[in-house]
Amino acid sequence: MFAIAVIAMPGLAQADPCTAPLPSAGTVFSGPVRYVGDGDSLCVGRSADPATWIEVRLANFYAPELSAPGGAAAKAMLETVARGKAVNCRAGKRSYDRVIAQCRLDGADLGDLLRRRGVTEGGNGWR
Question: Where is the signal peptide (predicted)?
Fold first, then answer.
């Protein structure tokens, strides 16, 4: 029984901690990237409290799903490029429990930064 609980625990750790209310379209918000869910999803929050973290889906980058080829590498690169660094984002429409937003790091679009680093695109929403 203990083995089953240990096996189930990694799945629990995968739940994203972002719980702040989502901003309206056009709202500009900023803060450090506090959490990276996958290659195109992250949380932005000004404080260490996850209740203030806004869940973001990058507007112009479509990473593979984590379970697909390239998915884990895309997440790792987004963490390398952005985690802990301040980003400026402009909210677009909402999608499920997150806001689709264009985010910039030091003036550069995060999607463009990932492309320059060779991250594979082609996940859900690929056009």
Answer: 1-15
